[in-house]
Amino acid sequence: MIEVKDLYKEFNGTPVLKGISTTFEKGKTNMIIGQSGSGKTVFLKCLVGLHVPDNGIISFDGRKHTELSIKQHRKLRQEIGMVFQGGALYDSLTVEENIMFPLKMFKDQSNSEMLDRVNFVLKRVNLTDCNKKFPAEISGGMQKRVAIARAIVMNPKYLFCDEPNSGLDPNTATVIDNLIQEITQEYQIITVINSHDMNSVMEIGEKIVFLKNGVKAWEGSNKEIFKTENEAIVNFVYSSNLFRKVREAYLNEIK
Amino acid sequence: MNYLEHIGKYFIMLKQVFRKPQKWSVFREMLFREIEDLGLKSLGIITFISFFVGGVVAIQTALNVDSPFIPKYLIGFATKRSVILEFAPTFMCVILAGKVGSYISSSIGTMRVTEQIDALEVMGINSLNYLVLPKIMATMFFYPLLILLAMFLGIYGGYVAGTLTGLFYSEDYIYGVQLDFKPYFISYALTKTLVFAFVIATIPAYHGYYVKGGSLEVGRASTQAVVWTSVVIILLNYFLTQMLLG
After folding, report:
1. Secondary structure tally for chain B: helices H, strands E
2. What spatial distance separates the first Cα and last Cα of chain A, rounded to whole Å?
3. Partners of A59 in the beta sheet?
4. Does any domain span residue A21?
5. Strand partners of residue A162
6. Residue A189's CATH number
7. Which residues of chain B have pLDDT under 50?
8. Distance between CA B45 and CA B50 in Å, rounded?
9. Model pLDDT, residue A253
């Protein structure tokens, strides 16, 4: 479990996260949602260690980030997989080399063992026949899948995804959502997704943390989101006509 | 940000760069790649420029030495000295600062804005050590060889220019080149090259690594990197010349 307590972060005197506390559980797809500028990305970057919080504690299965030595920190980082918004694949490396990269850095395996593992994860994300291609030669959806494959190649305990659906068509977005959810359940990892995509939130959001102006304004599941009366989340999620109608239909069905 | 802050940040960056590589096999692979990208791919431009610069120096000297009291072998002597002391190490390094410096800062800057550097950090990799150390090693290893080649080609370019234009006899030129040869000048030129190679690898890396924003900022960082690298090379050239020859 990832536990966050009173997380506080500011930049040049401007507070961005104002005392966020929450937990993310194993085997669940946890989602962080909120408007642009609400602090989602900063929150995610604090979780993965790209930003150092000014205050508060982040605990990974009891290991508090503030109490870890450099060596322990490094070990913890190897248990983290991350899918970046743009994929963040290395342009000069082929798909195969991109996925093999963490193995080369941290595992003492032979080339054939590493290749086997690469082929296994590529198959897992339903990608074949693109091993030797460069990132620029494959589509955006395929790049996201390669990024997921790279994130899971080390068998991480924690998977973080920063807007994995951005820039993808609805079909591909659903494929990516389902893939992340399947991987989360299959490997029993803790997945935290930062998303704007309300379809994803409704589809796979087993736990949702809603941020507003750097404060946790609401948390619950995708089922609870329909029933909640919390004004902040209702205004955010049901800002579109389509979702308002879906909600009305759902509530009428319950009645 | 003021200049002092930049200088401080630059040295803090160097502290992170000079750590033990996390995996030697990966470092070796990166080193060979950088030798190819930063060194071998610069062979063409260095060959071309040094040959013609040597030729121009020889022609200019010949045209300016028209007094019958000045022996013609001085043309070869002056060309040799100019090429070994300044044109090969300093001029070629300024050229390399433009070519390689913009490449280093734009490639690292693009990695920064596309979150590739964040991806390295999340994996627990010291991104500065991984990206910059092989570049420093590659330039410091390969540029002295490149400058030795530039010296040879510069002097040879002078010889070819003289024989083609008929401004001086080849025997006079060769005699001048051989006259009062001081091996220390080669050491001096190579010492300068080592320092400049370090500057060419690190200043653009600094500008690229700390870039914020998008493609426009990467372009700006690239320009700044080339300007500052050239300025630092010229300044260091002055101080090194004072220290080593003064």
Report:
1. 10, 0
2. 36
3. A3, A64
4. yes
5. A194
6. 3.40.50.300
7. none
8. 8
9. 77
Q: Which of B36, B37, B122, B135 to mutate to test the interface with A (most CBs of A within 10 A)?
A: B122
> B114: Cβ–Cβ under 8 A, 6 or more apart, which residues?
A86, A88
Q: Specify if A69 maps to a domain.
A: yes
In whole angstroms, give the CA distance from residue A165 to residue B76: 68
Structure tokens at A2: 């990832």
d(CA B107, CA A153) in angstroms, rounded, equals: 26
Of A105, A140, A97, the closest CA to residue A122 belongs to A97
Contact B124 A74 (CB under 8 A): yes
Cα B116 to chain centroid distance, Å, stands at: 28
**Interface ipTM:** 0.87
Enclosing domain of residue A125: 2-226
Strand partners, A33: A210
| Mutation choice for A interface testing from B19, B24, B114, B123 by most A CBs within 10 A | B123
In a domain, A44, yes or no: yes
Interface contact flag, A105 B114, Cβ < 8 Å: no
CB-based contacts of B23, cutoff 8 Å, min separation 6: A104, A105, A106
User: Is position A62 within any domain?
Assistant: yes
The answer to whether the Cβ–Cβ distance between A77 and B123 falls below 8 Å is: yes
Predicted structure pTM score: 0.88
Per the listing, tokens 């010349």 go with B241
Q: Which two tokens stand for residue A83?
A: 């899918």
**Contact list, A152 vs chain B (CB under 8 Å):** none
A5-19 mean pLDDT: 92
The CA-atom distances, in angstroms, between A176 and each of A163, A204, A254, B180 are: 11, 11, 30, 73
Chain A residue numbers touching B114 (CB-CB < 8 A): 86, 88
Closest approach of B19 to chain A, Cα-based (Å): 14
The token pair that represents B212 in the structure block: 């914020």
Give the count of domains, chain A: 1
Across A107-120, average pLDDT: 91
Chain B residues whose CB is inside 8 A of the A85 CB are 115
Domain-by-domain residue ranges, chain B? Answer: 23-239
A38 near A195, Cβ under 8 Å? Answer: no
Q: What pLDDT shows up at residue A134? A: 95
Q: Among candidates A218, A216, A233, which has minimal Cα distance to A17?
A: A216
**Angstroms from A182 CA to nearest CA on chain B:** 23
